[in-house]
Design brief:
Blueprint lengths: L11 E2 L7 E2 L20 E4 L3 E3 L2 E3 L2 E4 L2
Antiparallel strand pairs: 1-2, 3-6, 4-5
Length: about 60
């Protein structure tokens, strides 16, 4: 496994916007992390993060071409 495809989408947390703590990978479902056949410089791309009704929403796609 390479850094390019692991640990998926990284998140960070801060309470003061100065001190940050890295979170575990955001995508927890292993099915979503199957990047078999995905070439270098391709992989998971996440373009936005939103919060609604107590949930964080992260739309993402697997770029493979």
């Amino acid at each position: 496994m390479t850094f390019e495809q692991y640990p998926d989408v990284r998140g960070h947390r801060s309470r003061d916007l100065v001190n940050w703590r890295a979170l575990e990978g955001v995508l927890e479902n292993r099915r979503l992390l199957d990047l078999t056949g995905v070439r270098d410089s391709e992989g998971i791309s996440a373009s936005g993060l939103s919060y609604e009704d107590g949930f964080l929403h992260l739309p993402f796609t697997v770029v493979d071409t």
